[in-house]
Every structure is written in C-alpha cells, then in structure tokens.
UniProtKB/TrEMBL annotation:
InterPro entries, sorted: DUF2989 (IPR021372)
Pfam families, sorted: DUF2989
Protein name according to UniProt: DUF2989 domain-containing protein
Organism of derivation: Pseudobowmanella zhangzhouensis
Domain of life: Bacteria
Amino acid sequence: MEIANKDKFEIKVQKAVAYANFRDFFRNKSTFVYISGLFALSGCDTLFTPPQKVLCDRYPQQCAALGDSAWCQHHKHEVLTRFAEAQQDVAQPKLARRQFRELQALRELEQCLSHELRNNSLQLNSKQDISASLSHTRQWLAKSEQSSARSTQAPLLFYRWRYLQDRDAAAMLVNTLRAKTKLDSFEQSMLGQLYVFQRQDEQALVALHHALQQPPRDKKTLAEIFATLHVIYAGHEKWLQSYQWGYLANQYGAGLNLSLIREQLKKQQIYQHSAEKAAETLLAQILEGEYHAPL
C-alpha cells in the first residue's frame, strides 16, 4: 500500500514539474537559448544570416541602440537579424510574423543581459557597459511593443497574450485563427498553445500534430510544438510520448528537465535509448514531410 501511494505521489510531482516547465516555457520564453546543432540556424528562418558587422554597417542606428558591451553577442546578432528580416517584408501577415520574432529576440537579449548583470565577479566597468546595453534594449523593446499594441495580426496578438498576459488579445487571436480555412504550422502552433491554456488538450493535440505535417521552416516554432506536446502527454501520464517529444524539443535547445520522466520509463521497463531512436525517426519523418498525425 505504501509503495502504491509513493508511486501516486511521484506521478503528482511529475505532473507538477511538467506543467511548471510548460508555464515557464511559454511565459518566460527568453530563458531558453535556441541552438540547433543539426541545422546551425540558431532559431533563424533562413539558411544564411549576414555577420553582425554587415548588419551594423547596414543598420548603424539599430546596432548603436544595442550598446557597446561585449556580452550576449549571439542575442544581439539575433535581434539585428530579425530587424533586418522585418525590413524586407511589407505584406501582412508575413511582416507581423517577422515583427513577432524581433520582439521575441529583444526579450531574449534583455534576459541574457539581466543574467550577466547579476554576475558578482564582474568588474565595475563591465557592469556599467552591460547596464547601458540593457537600458538601450529595454527602450527598443518598449518602443516596438507600443508600435504593435493596436495590431490585429495573429502573431502580434499572440505576443501580447504570451508575454504581456493580454486576455483580450487571446480572445481575438482564437477568433482570428478559427475564422481561417487553412492554418500553416506557425498558426497551428499558436492555436495549440492557446488550447492548452484553455484546458482543451484534445483540440491542442489535433492542432499541434497537424502543424507537424507542414514544412517546419521556422525552427523555433518546431521547438515550441515539441515542448507543448511533451507537456500535454506528461499531464496525461503518457510517459513514452512525453519523453520522445521532450527529447526532440531539447535537440532544439528547449532546456526541458526530463529526469523524472526517465524514472517513469524505467518503471515501465522502456529503454531510454529505444525511446530516443524512435523520436529521431519521428523527426526524420517530420523534416522529410512524411509525418502522419496519429489522430
């Protein structure tokens, strides 16, 4: 009887940890660094991004706005890349999607600089440089958020819901997405995340699995889909599926803690290596456009 109660307790702990991870993943997305060794894209949509020097020569005002500190260079490059992409798109909703990624990159840079600023071993002049960059980044972020505050485009509604906890934006987003006859992978991912927060897991699974049947050009979107599936399956105590999707999310830098799920796999006598091989097969199917939703 004690063993059974212990197992039930561990399951409850696993659920709590999984949903805590999920909450952090979507409410504090900037805590995760996306580095995909497989694609060497660092979360970007394209196979090539100009070096930072080229971007700074092209957009000196924006480069100066990020400050002169030597810290968080990867995140600064990401911000400039996203800004440059947004300048190339004039048509909605593609522009709104670029603007969403620019805002997201600014938030990731802000989090990185804030983390560095808490390093007590840094010298005063280094802290001053970081503080100045952080101030510039926050100014840019605030200005960008203000300029997109009235947008009714889905990506920017999604941003306001996810990062600013704007419930009105969430309601508008659901109506916008439901009114469309066909959704791409990014839109399906947005809808799936909304469904999870509305405790509509079945609808979320349909949206997310359908998203994986479409070309995953945006690697960040792909990581978000994997992480969301990981959490849904953990909440339903489907440990194998949860581990597989969590494993794939971590291949894209999601940073999920899978240790408790590994313990559940051991109890079910499921080998971790086998689960990972099966997950890699799923990934190959997704990338080759041969994935079929199990629904």
